[in-house]
């Protein structure tokens, strides 16, 4: 037994060292503490972030290999026959596999936990696998008995969230680690804060073609405060983006979304909610205040006019394009008005051509959008007439051109 214990200690040191070398410096956000200020007048949405590392997707397969398990576990710690070893390694290393579950045990557990792992997953051939992580406390105790709480706490390093394009209102418990390597605040709104976030490689799944990001990817993340009004705004915006704005015929002048999540905790009545968007350069307000962006030629002025006309066409599309959506417990056609058009909500984005001077303006932020039933020009649920959006857009275009003319006439 002493030899087995020594071999187990050596194996644990080996796997711990490999895991520590591969950990990503993730960001941990204390949402429980932040939730206590949700009804206060404090400006901050979330508490200061702490670093909490996680093992990125795919690394476990590099660490838990057939050779490592054979040399460090099968030959030194346990007494598996050749037939057992072949069968057990197939279950551990196959798909969906047990790599992350075993790696959790190898890093934090006692030898007793390895025996419990063998009994539950390998001998009894239970249906649970890495795809079922993270385990709840009841299952962790069922498998590892008194060691269950240790496993429950340690498993989250290996189960960081993966964001999937095209999915909306996906729920996660507050104990799950988020795949953010860094984040920078971009601005504040009525219901929350917008951050630029860097997503670790392997933790974002593109929609077309369906694949994981091979390199870190930057997205804009719009966070909603954990209160009733903000959560209602999040639900409304998620619904509009999913069912309406993200449709195949949406014009290029409207900012489409990527996905949304809800981050919940038993201590909080409302979740922290986030919607993810492609990264933008800035918004119109910041853009026109930068003297370097002032058009230098008539061609540049015409390009700006075209961009603002595209914004107007986007507003017309919102007002005239019908969507099939549940309203008042029944399905009927409906269309939407933005109701919160302002310079902060018109974003400046790359148009995808690769030219740094090639940009497009996009309408964003549908948290205040309201539906209008067809053929009804004034709806009591909307505080503005249907024409208001277009009038606002026209006013912004005039302001843009006036400012452009003034700035371009300034001496260098």
UniProtKB/TrEMBL annotation:
The record's InterPro entries line, in alphabetical order, gives:
Kinase-like_dom_sf, Prot_kinase_dom, Ser/Thr_kinase_AS
Any one GO MF annotation of this record: ATP binding
All copies of the Protein kinase domain together span: 180-412
Q: What is this protein called?
A: Protein kinase domain-containing protein
């Amino acid at each position: 037994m002493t030899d087995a214990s020594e071999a187990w200690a050596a194996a644990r040191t080996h796997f711990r060292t490999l895991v520590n070398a591969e950990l990503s410096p993730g960001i941990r956000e204390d949402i429980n503490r932040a939730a206590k200020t949700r009804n206060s007048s404090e400006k901050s949405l979330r508490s200061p972030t702490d670093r909490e590392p996680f093992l990125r997707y795919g690394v476990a397969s590099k660490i838990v290999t057939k050779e490592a398990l054979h040399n460090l576990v099968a030959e030194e710690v346990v007494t598996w026959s050749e037939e057992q070893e072949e069968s057990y390694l197939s279950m551990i290393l196959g798909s969906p596999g047990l790599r992350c579950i075993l790696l959790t045990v190898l890093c934090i557990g006692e030898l007793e936990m390895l025996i419990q792992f063998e009994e539950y997953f390998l001998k009894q051939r239970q249906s649970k696998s890495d795809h079922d992580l993270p385990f709840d406390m009841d299952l962790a105790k069922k498998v590892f008995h008194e060691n269950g709480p240790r496993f429950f706490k340690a498993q989250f390093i290996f189960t960081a969230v993966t964001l999937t394009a095209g999915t909306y209102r996906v729920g996660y418990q507050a104990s799950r680690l988020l795949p953010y390597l860094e984040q920078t605040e971009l601005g504040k709104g009525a219901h929350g804060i917008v951050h630029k976030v860097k997503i670790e490689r392997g933790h974002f799944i593109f929609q077309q073609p369906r694949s994981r990001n091979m390199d870190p990817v930057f997205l804009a993340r719009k966070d909603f405060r954990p209160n009733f009004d903000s959560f209602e705004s999040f639900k409304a915006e998620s619904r509009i983006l999913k069912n309406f704005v993200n449709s195949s015929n949406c014009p290029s002048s409207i900012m489409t979304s990527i996905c949304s999540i809800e981050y919940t905790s038993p201590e909080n009545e409302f979740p922290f909610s986030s919607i993810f968007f492609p990264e933008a350069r800035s918004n119109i307000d910041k853009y026109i205040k930068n003297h370097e962006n002032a058009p230098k030629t008539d061609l540049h002025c015409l390009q700006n006019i075209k961009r603002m006309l595209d914004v107007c066409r986007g507003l017309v599309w919102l007002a005239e394009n019908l969507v099939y959506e549940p309203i008042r417990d029944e399905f009927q056609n409906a269309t939407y008005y933005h109701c919160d058009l302002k310079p902060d909500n018109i974003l400046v984005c790359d148009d995808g051509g690769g030219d740094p001077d090639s940009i497009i303006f996009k309408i964003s932020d549908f948290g205040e959008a309201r539906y209008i039933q067809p053929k009804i020009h004034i709806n009591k649920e909307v505080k503005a007439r249907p024409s208001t959006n277009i009038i606002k857009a026209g006013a912004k275009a005039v302001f843009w051109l006036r400012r452009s003319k003034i700035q371009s006439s300034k001496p260098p």
